[in-house]
Design goal:
The chain has about 60 residues and is mainly alpha-helical. It has two helices and no strands.
Length: about 60
């Protein structure tokens, strides 16, 4: 008896999930990206808001 591709695919399974586990390496990379962005964007926030407000006001005119 020959098997069809759909029968073969049904037999192929993905391994069972072993649950959530913290990935320290990816956490470190995430923090290394986030913290410099935070230190750059917080001081620039007033200028970004001012630019946004001016563009909204000038677009109405």
């Amino acid at each position: 008896m020959s098997t069809t591709p759909s029968q073969q695919e049904q037999g192929a399974t993905v391994g069972q999930s072993r649950g959530f586990h913290p990935d320290t390496g990816m956490n470190v990379i995430g923090w290394l990206v986030f913290l410099p962005m935070l230190f750059v964007l917080i001081p620039l926030l007033p200028f970004i808001l001012l630019y946004w407000l001016l563009t909204k006001l000038l677009d109405r005119a």
